[in-house]
Specification:
heterodimer; A: 562 residues; alpha+beta; Sulfite Reductase Hemoprotein, domain 2; 5-stranded antiparallel beta sheet; globular; B: 131 residues; alpha/beta; TIM Barrel; 6-stranded mixed beta sheet; 3 helices
Chain lengths: 562, 131
């Protein structure tokens, strides 16, 4: 955990006071709905379909057990005793009362947490690899760089009224587990030939209604220049990004409309003025931030042969899917799955949060991480404790061995909660999980990302699912468009299979896609996405739409007009 | 009700004098274009036509940091108390609040935050160089 110093704490406290004043002014009729909207959004407060929604920041997904217990308490005291972990590694409360939000923020501040800039047209939570600091393929500990960016992006005076929201992702390992290609700015740590650390800078990626994979605008940015360079990018965006149309306001549209070369030239011209200026990072600052992170006090252990830990039914499957290698001998990282069938993806109750905090205290140095796939990770578990942990996690319903598999579905809250949604997401996720509940079958299918968004804003990242499902509205009815071939990293966008389906048809369609894959794969080692990349989407399309006799007359009519 | 703040004090508006030279910039304007006029300007006004239009913040910083403007820099348009802290950080020292805002009340907003992480005209050294 990064531990706040007195100034970090003071700024968060001041924000609580500021927001309390704004809420009071709104409740007293001194601010209009519209004006208060712009202010509350800077504090993660939405007015949703049925109630307000408060999005609490979990910077780069890192949480202490003290913080998790506080979240459990807050959810119990101010909400309906559960929360929802989002793909930005944040936590959402679905039923808080507007007038109590300042009190919630004050409680959060007491454990060094906040809801600053979790919505609105400013910098959002920087996301990163859930295995930062423990991954064997680490180049840098990305948490340190995320925290440096958190500070730079918090209450940035020049960039607090951007044309649109702005998302950073940082990846510090060789393998990209942060999906840097689908962020406004993606930073991928690299080392040059002299072994110096820098960042490959991607810009203009994103999902939403215009999905685009980011462009590399700098192959190697030496780390001292990180802040001046991103400041140059942001200044170009702040001045020239479109403000006439909310759907064209993201930086990806600016990069696309200007062309990457012209955009790069403008950034370089701006950077020429800022480079080596006061915002240039120093080794002292990087060391200071790094030193404020707590680090596990690892014991000297040896790696164990995990296969020999025991032959309990279900344990091997969990080891295979939910246990991950660790850079320190004798340790492993463990994913607690929040994707049990019947539970909305990413949802946890207050009781579960407290139980998870107990697990993290006993097995993982009192810390845990939220993943962008909406699961939780205990990053520092002793290998000789894995059996014990598995038993406890299983009893809590958190040991579903489906990480990386079809039922580890990423889903937005969808039409059950969200005012923007065209269709529900959660019941679709559940129907698919029920269809594929046979573990042997699930393991046979192998690695497969299935992502669901309830509207084109793409909070469920459907474009980068190997199979993506998008809720669409047709004349007031909920329909679902299916995409195939997306990938998180290296980023690739799925292609739409064809006309959309009614909700009840979706599990059949997924089953058809899976059958097609199983028929076409060369071997077990060839994953679904590999097959799509090898043979294209045509065979999948045929499998799904080709069976004309299976189509109802209505289906055919819809297909004709859709 | 005063709507003008200069140097963190509410002031009643003074009628324009005939010899004052005001340079006015709209959000899309390039401050570099008026660099030559800055030395002789009584003040520079930057317009914020909408609550959420943040282009003027960049203009303020550029005028102060790149073009060396030292005179009065006034934010005009849809300025509310909720903008003041950031505007001042970006180099503005005069604020013409929009209709309905009370300058006396709004002045408290300069104290919303006691520190900033970033380098800006108000704090040329970022916090990490002062910590």
């Amino acid at each position: 955990m990064y531990l706040y110093d007195a100034i970090d704490q003071r700024l968060v406290d001041e924000r609580v006071r500021q927001f309390r004043g704004q809420t009071d002014r709104f409740l007293a009729g001194k601010l209009t709905e519209e004006e208060f909207r712009a202010l509350r959004l800077r504090n993660g407060l939405y007015i949703q379909r049925y109630a307000p929604m408060l999005r609490i920041a979990i910077p780069y997904g890192l949480l202490s057990t003290k913080q998790l217990r506080k979240l459990a308490q807050i959810a119990r005291k101010y909400d309906r005793a559960y929360g929802h972990f989002s793909t930005r590694q944040n936590l959402q409360l679905n039923w808080p009362r507007l007038e109590q939000v300042p009190d919630i923020l004050a409680e959060l501040a007491s454990v060094q947490m906040h809801a600053i800039q979790t919505s609105g047209n400013s910098f959002r939570n920087t996301t990163t690899d859930q295995f930062a600091g423990v991954a064997a393929d680490e180049i840098v500990d990305s948490f340190v760089w995320c925290e440096i960016l958190r500070q730079w992006s918090t209450f940035h005076p020049e960039f607090s009224y951007l044309p649109r929201k702005f998302k950073f992702a940082v990846n510090g390992a060789r393998r990209d587990r942060a999906a840097v290609g689908v962020h406004d700015i993606g930073l991928h740590a690299v080392k040059n030939e002299r072994n110096e650390v820098g960042f490959q800078v991607l810009v203009g990626g994103g999902l939403g209604r215009t999905p685009i994979v980011g462009t590399v605008i700098r192959e190697f940015l030496p780390w001292p220049h990180l802040l001046t360079y991103v400041e140059a990018i942001l200044r170009v965006y702040n001045r020239f990004g479109r403000r006439d149309n909310i759907h064209k306001a993201r930086i990806k549209i600016l990069v696309k409309e200007r062309g990457a070369e012209r955009f790069r030239a403008e950034v370089e011209a701006e950077w020429a003025h800022l480079k080596n200026g006061p915002a240039t990072l120093t080794q002292q600052e990087v060391d200071r931030v790094a030193a404020r992170f707590t680090h596990p006090d690892y014991e000297q252990l040896h790696d164990l042969d995990l296969a020999k830990l025991g032959s309990f039914p279900g344990f091997a499957a969990w080891l295979k899917r939910n246990v991950h290698p660790h850079k320190v001998r004798g340790y492993a990282a463990v994913t607690l799955s929040l994707k049990k069938t019947g539970v909305p993806p990413g949802d946890v109750t207050s009781d579960q949060m407290e139980a998870i905090a107990d697990l993290a205290d006993r097995y993982s140095f009192g810390e845990l991480r939220v993943t962008h796939e909406q699961n939780l990770v205990l990053a520092d578990v002793r290998q000789d404790k894995l059996v014990e942990l598995w038993r406890e996690a299983r009893a809590l319903g958190l040991a579903t061995p489906n990480i990386g598999l079809l039922t580890n579905i990423i889903s937005c809250p969808g039409g059950d909660f969200c005012a923007l949604a065209n269709a529900k997401s959660i019941p679709v996720a559940e129907a698919i999980q029920r269809r594929f509940d046979d573990l042997d079958y699930l393991f046979d299918i192998g690695e497969l990302d299935l992502n669901i968004s309830g509207c084109m804003n793409a909070c469920g990242h459907h474009h980068v699912g190997h199979i993506g499902i998008l809720g669409v509205d047709k004349n007031g009815e909920e329909w679902y468009q299916i995409q195939v071939g997306g990938n998180q990293a290296p980023a690739a966008l799925g292609k739409v299979l064809g006309p959309s389906f009614a909700r009840a048809e979706v599990p059949d369609v997924i089953e058809n896609l899976i059958e097609c894959y199983l028929e076409r794969r060369d071997s077990d080692a060839e994953r679904f996405i590999d097959v799509v990349q090898r043979i294209g989407i045509e065979p999948f399309k045929e499998k799904v739409y080709g069976k004309a006799d299976h189509r109802s007359p209505r289906r055919q009519r819809d297909a004709a007009v859709a | 009700m005063a709507r003008l703040i200069i140097g963190r004090r509410a002031v009643s508006e003074t009628p324009p004098s005939p010899d004052e030279k005001v340079v006015r910039l709209e959000p899309a304007d390039d401050p570099g274009k008026v660099a030559g006029e800055l030395a002789g300007a009584t003040r520079v006004e930057v317009n914020f036509p909408k609550f959420g239009d943040g282009r003027g913040f960049s203009i303020g910083r550029l005028l102060r940091e790149r073009y060396g403007y030292k005179g009065e820099l006034r934010a005009v348009g849809q300025i509310t108390r909720d903008h003041l802290f950031f505007l001042e950080s970006c180099g503005f020292d005069a604020f013409e609040l929009r209709e309905g805002e009370d300058a006396e009340e709004a002045i408290a907003a300069f104290g919303d935050f006691s520190e900033s992480y970033q380098a800006s005209p108000a704090r040329p050294q970022p916090l990490f160089r002062r910590r």
